[in-house]
Amino acid sequence: MNLLHIPLIKALLKNRWPQFTIIVIALAGFILAILSGFFGTPVGSRNFGIIFVWIAWWAILMLVAVPFFGRGWCGICPIPAPGEWIQRGAMLGPRGQAKGATLSKSKGLGRRWPKRFRNIWLQNGSFLLVALFSTVILTQPRVTAIVLVAFLFVAVGASLIFERRAFCRYLCPVGGFIGLYSQLAPVEVRVVDTAVCKSHTEKTCYTGNDDGYGCPWDVFPPGMVKNTYCGTCMECLRTCPHDNIAINIRAIGTDLSVERNRKLDEAYKAFIMLGAAAVYSAVLLGPWGTLKLAAYSVGTLPWMAYATSFLTLILLALPGIFWLMVWFGKRLSDASQPTKKLFISQAYALIPLGLTAWIAFSLSFVFANFSYVLVALSDPFGWGWDLIGTAGIGWTPWLTNLTPFLQVGVLVGGFIWAAITSSKIASEKLDAARAARLSTPVIGFCLVFTLTLMGLLIA
Fold first, then answer.
1. How many angstroms separate the Cα of 433 from the Cα of each of 333, 339, 390, 440?
2. Which of 90, 127, 153, 349 is found 20 to 30 A from 411 (Cα to Cα)?
């Protein structure tokens, strides 16, 4: 189903004003979060920055935006907006831009991103860097503000040096995991007919024209087979002169069946996200005081031990155990493919497992703490204001009796999804019996992880 067949949706998406308005509102909230972090109360539960970034925004992102809209958030994210406006020399559409003009002719140096780094390895590293300090970032408003300023500074700097959205595509730690999990979303941006694209020599969806900019994500729409790198910015919709862009509703997880373009950097992102969900659950929700203290004591020997253990688990232990499961499955099935190729392809079964793990983790604190949002709206700095009359509302946890059942349902659903995905991927090259033998150890890995996470979150 192509949503652009609905005239109202098509009109809203082609028009720049709705998108621009949401970005401006989000940017205002982003700036308020920074200001409240620097000048507001240090009490996290009363500070706008902590509440709106790590409770409200995170809840919207993990429970709604990513599962249902994939990279939809990237289309309205405020972080790249200032740099992009400077780069383009305009806040809305092209102003006097000649047809066929490219983003390389915009403001700034307009350099191409280095070819060796055109992957998500740097995003993997930036996420790990943030994750190592996450307990402090999530609880101390000033640290949250510093991180948000750093994001903005790097995004603007990248826009001034490189063409297009280099920060979003190659550096943003949030964009890395949104791109990974967007492969599961029931929405995709694709061309309607690639034959039309072949006959269109100007390629305005990539180069830009009077109606819009060339793809800010450096993606050539006719060659796009997965959601991973499409930022849903809608520029290709505005620049295509043949009305050849579609926004399709599709079966969930469709991209997992795309055999081409399975890569090691994406496979490692799956391990990073899976391991981080488990570690966060243990540190932030578990009963181990020593572990919590070590995670909070940045720079001390206990923190260094925690950081070493964290990185070892994510970068060595989980991939190593998974490699053994794949190797064992290969021996059982007598598969002829190299173990590395099997390892990469089977790692894509961890994508649904990881997303559901993060949803279950988020359910642990989102409902319990969402009442703080109303308080922070009335008194964003914790200065005693009562702008909308809700500053005096006490902490009121929501749906706490229902949360464990929701978490079990989500985790079981994720395990089943992962098992089905592993079996389908194995069946691409093997008959049913051999595919089952290849995928069985991988499914066992997923089961053990699911039960471990249940123990951390619910027991």
1. 8, 19, 61, 11
2. 127
What are 358-386's pLDDT values in tens digits?
Answer: 999 999 888 888 889 999 999 999 999 99
DSSP symbol at 348: T
pLDDT at 118 over 90: yes
Nearest partner of 224 among 176, 189, 251, 256, judged by Cα: 189
Other Cβ atoms closer than 10 A to 416: 16
Rounded Cα distance between 2 and 105, Å, is: 33
- Integer Cα distance of 240 and 226 in angstroms: 20
Overall pTM surpassing 0.85 (yes/no): yes
8 Å CB contact between 271 and 322: yes
Q: How many beta carbons lie within 10 A of that of residue 19, not counting itself?
A: 18
Instruction: State the sign of the Cα–Cα–Cα–Cα dihedral 247, 253, 257, 261.
Output: positive
Task: Give the separation between CA 126 and CA 64, rounded to whole angstroms.
Answer: 24
Calpha distance 122→132 (Å, rounded): 15
Beta carbons of 80 and 137 less than 8 angstroms apart: no
Q: Tokens 């070493």 belong to which residue?
A: 308
Other Cβ atoms closer than 10 A to 315: 16
- How many Å separate Cα 73 from the centre of its chain? 9
d(CA 24, CA 16) in angstroms, rounded, equals 12
48 vs 38: CA distance, rounded Å: 11
CA 155 to chain centre: 16
Among 20-29, 201-210, 393-402, the range scoring the smallest mean pLDDT is: 393-402
Strand partners, 8: none
Contact 209, 382 (CB under 8 A): no
Q: Which residues on neighbouring strands pair with residue 246, listed in sequence order?
A: 190
Q: Are 108 and 157 in contact (CB under 8 A)?
A: no
Helix or strand run (H / E) with residue 189: strand 187-191
Indicate the DSSP class of residue 162: B
Which helix (H) or strand (E) is 249 found in, with range? strand 245-249
Query: If you write DSSP's letter for every residue of 219-246 in order, what string do you get?
Result: --GGG--SSTT-----HHHHH-TT--EE
Single-letter amino acid, residue 154: V
Nearest to 103 by CA among 169, 42, 47: 169
